[in-house]
Design brief:
heterodimer; A: 542 residues; alpha+beta; Flavocytochrome C3, Chain A, domain 1; 6-stranded mixed beta sheet; 6-stranded antiparallel beta sheet; 29 strands; globular; B: 237 residues; Ubiquitin-like (UB roll); Fumarate Reductase Iron-sulfur Protein, Chain B, domain 2; 2 domains; 5-stranded mixed beta sheet; two-stranded antiparallel sheet; 9 strands
Chain lengths: 542, 237
């Protein structure tokens, strides 16, 4: 046990000037290392060790203009903003893309083995990028980066700067008015609750748990942290923007991703139209049509699958990819297709379908990663920042690592001495794991209305169902999840336009008036939705 | 296809076998899939019709990339998400890994794996990056899941302090591939003490590694470095 912590009776842990990080994936590890560099101690709380985090699933790569040429960086900025339909904070995006080459350099210095070609970095061009700028390591970019970060954090653990608390889950924040004083966590092995005092950085990942079986995210990413803090008054943003990835397949209890790198190296989507294989994206968008942004590809997939002359499923044809690329860059993808689908993608096309892959929305963070509660910060996929209405491939790892660093820097600059007395947890509950059938039911309701294409009727009907269920249930965890679901549906209802990943059949155009952040707030027992200009004044819509 | 899933369960201090009936007409079903479906039954009943608690087990990625779901399946360590049901006999036995303390049902506490990595000082002392000629080695060595399958099958690993097993090998090779001078020597010394001297070279680990790390090959690579170093010392003498 690190010397800076003093155990007291009744499971309380008292710390001074220590920062608590919830989540040990890219965002959490990046924050921990940044704090350690500044000699600031931290506790890294996670349900499972970092080796099991969803971050290890990231495949495509990390984007950044390695030339560091101003024009190249600006192009990365433009592509990110364009993909996000100008809904991201332009200043935050500018800073992120400017720092991207440095992050890749840092990861290389930690020994992350990015692929090289003739002594220079090999780069991929992913969907929506105007040029190749994504560094990668086969199809295991997430895994190799995580290994490098984990090894570095281990060094800090031994020095006593970082303390890990694996097999612990977040229960609730300790709030003193608008100030976050720490949080309550629970040991999954012993069931014991523990109170941690200090500033808190949330890096708890996306909300795939709201959609059991329908998302590519890890099964442990249950969205409980986001749901819990929302109920405690933490604002959420842009919840309606859910990225569907065009190429997923059904696995055990979740979807499996066929990485975008497949299309980057020549994979093509087609559907059967009569007797022909119709490569529809190429027909609609030209020879590079398979590399349009994910929202565009998914919408077109939806359209062609509804046509009477077309026959599902949609296939990903990777048979034209040359052998060298398979051997050097896509061998893991081939292994995944063989192992889990029984298909050799070098010989046969793979039937694919869109699946929930990423949540652009989440805990609303400013450009310094502060939330609306003092001393509470958010980074990584749980945070709403950088990706606007749709995320570009390769920007997820970048956003999480950069966000973790920024959140940590801000937290250190605002660090303070916490009072030594225990602050009572005002929620006063001990959460039991929710029953799987309830999680599944919630997922089914949300899926019906939060699919690729949405409309008012379906959203209203789902909202009624969720609100009725909320009144009837007395399970705290289910109530939290229902509130998060209600906030998501209400956000989608109020955004009466189509933008990026939010496609309303009844409001098909992008509207200038909606170039604002959707803010969800829980106050006085109700979920309220507001629209806030990216410059931060707001309009109340009820 | 009807299968009987026999699980060694631990609840509080009680350890007992419980069997569940599972019918499917699908092929390619994984053991993880079976466990997820059993837990979706409400209520979950065993073959005697007795109500059972949901089965506790760890999982996350369901595609062989996180190592959470390692367990003994018919006596062999494997990842439940990768192991297919139809290759097994009518009754499939699931047990928690036996070389780690059991927390509940199929969940074990693998913190010793991570403590061993600290003991081996698996981190880069200076700063990389990986040279192009070492890239493949470093890439391969980055893949270890720390799932514990290699330790479970190992005839030498007993969970003690002397032999740390193959779970420290691959991460050490990654560090070795980017280290220089004294750091390299230190890693080699630790490798010699905690891996080389305790390994009985039975290499069962090679056959169970879920990511198919070439463990014997990685060992041979490190052993060659030891020989080189010893040779160097002799020359100096």
């Amino acid at each position: 046990m690190a010397a800076f912590m003093n155990w007291q009776q009744k499971g309380q842990k008292i710390m001074n000037e220590t920062i608590i990080i919830i989540g040990a994936g890219f965002g959490g590890l990046s924050a921990a290392l940044t704090l350690a560099e500044r000699d600031c101690k931290c506790v890294l709380v996670s349900r499972q060790p970092s080796e099991r985090a969803q971050s290890v699933l990231a495949e495509g790569g990390i984007s950044g203009a390695l030339s560091q040429d101003a024009e190249d960086i600006f192009s990365h900025y433009q592509d990110t903003m364009k993909a996000g339909c100008d809904l991201a904070d332009s200043d935050a995006v500018r800073r992120m893309v400017q720092f991207a080459p440095e992050i890749i350099r840092q990861l290389k210095a930690l020994g992350a083995p990015f692929q090289m070609e003739s002594g220079t970095a090999a780069l991929r061009k992913l969907g929506g990028h105007s040029r190749a700028r994504t560094s990668f390591a086969g199809n295991s970019t997430g895994k190799v980066i995580m290994t490098a970060l984990i090894d570095e954090v281990r060094k800090k653990e031994v020095l006593g700067i970082v303390e890990r608390l694996p097999h612990h889950v977040f229960e609730s924040l300790l709030l003193d008015g608008e100030n976050c004083q720490g949080c309550i966590i629970r040991d999954c092995y012993s069931g014991q609750k523990m109170t941690l005092y200090g500033s808190v950085i949330l890096a708890s990942g996306g909300m795939s748990g709201l959609f059991p079986g329908k998302a590519t995210g890890g099964l442990e990413n249950d969205g409980n942290v986001t749901a819990s803090v929302f109920r405690q008054g933490v604002e959420l943003g842009n919840l309606e923007f859910i990225q569907y990835h065009p190429t997923a397949v059904t696995g055990a209890g979740k979807k499996l991703l066929v990485s975008e790198s497949a299309r980057s190296h020549g994979g093509r989507l087609f559907i059967k139209r009569g007797t022909e294989n119709w490569y529809f994206l190429e027909d609609f968008y030209g020879p590079e049509g398979n590399l349009v942004t994910r929202d565009t590809a998914v919408k077109k997939m939806q359209e062609v699958s509804e046509r009477e002359d077309c026959e599902l499923p949609i296939y990903l044809d990777m048979t034209g990819i040359n052998k060298k690329v398979w051997e050097e860059q896509l061998f893991e993808l081939r292994g995944m297709c063989e192992k889990f689908l029984g298909i050799n993608p070098q010989k046969d096309s793979v039937p694919v379908e869109p699946a929930i892959h990423y949540f652009m929305g989440g805990i609303l963070a400013d450009k310094n990663h502060r939330t609306n509660k003092k001393f509470l910060y958010a980074a990584g996929e749980c945070a709403c920042q950088y990706h606007g209405a749709n995320r570009l491939g390769g920007n997820s790892i970048l956003g999480a690592i950069y966000g973790g660093q920024k959140a940590a820097e801000t937290a250190v600059s605002e660090i303070r001495q916490f009072k030594m007395q225990r602050i009572e947890d005002d929620t006063g509950y001990f959460s039991a794991p929710e029953a799987m059938d309830k999680a599944k039911r919630l997922g089914e309701i949300l899926e019906k209305c939060m699919g690729i294409m949405r409309n008012e009727d379906r959203l209203r009907s789902a909202l009624c169902e969720l609100e009725e269920w909320f009144v009837k249930t007395d399970s705290w965890v289910i109530q939290n999840k229902l509130l998060l679901g209600i906030a998501m549906v209400k956000s989608a209802l109020e955004r009466r336009e189509s933008r990026g990943a939010h496609w309303r059949a009844d409001y098909p155009r992008e509207e200038k008036d909606f170039q604002r952040i959707t803010v969800a707030r829980f106050e006085k027992g109700k979920v309220k939705i507001l629209f806030r200009k990216i410059s931060e004044d707001e309009v109340d819509v009820g | 296809m009807r299968k009987y899933i026999k699980i060694l369960r631990k609840q509080q201090e009680n350890t007992f076998w419980q069997t569940f009936c599972y019918d499917t007409n699908k092929s390619q079903i994984s053991i993880a899939h079976v466990l997820l479906e059993l837990n979706q039954r409400s209520p979950l009943k065993d073959i005697e019709g007795k109500e059972a608690e949901p089965i506790q087990w760890e999982c996350n990625c369901q595609q062989g990339k996180c190592g959470a779901c390692a367990m003994l399946i018919d006596g062999f360590p494997a990842l439940a998400c990768e192991e297919k049901l139809d290759i097994h006999m009518d009754t499939v036995e699931l047990m928690p890994l036996q070389k780690f303390p059991v927390v509940k049902d199929l969940i074990v506490d693998r913190s010793s794996v991570f403590e061993n990595l600290k003991k081996m000082q698996v981190w880069i002392k200076g700063k990389g990056p990986v040279k192009q000629e070492n890239q493949k080695e470093a890439y391969c060595a980055s893949q270890c899941l720390q799932c514990g399958c290699c330790l479970e099958i190992c005839t030498s690993y007993t969970g003690g302090d002397e032999f740390l097993g193959m779970a420290v090998l691959a991460p050490s090779v990654r560090i070795f591939s980017v280290s220089k001078g004294k750091e390299k020597d230190l890693m080699l010394k630790k490798y010699r003490r905690y891996v080389y001297e305790g390994c009985d070279e039975f290499h069962a680990c090679d056959h169970v590694c879920p990511v198919k790390l070439p463990l014997a090959q990685l060992m041979a690579h490190m052993n060659a470095q030891i020989k080189k170093a010893v040779g160097g010392d002799r020359n100096e003498e």
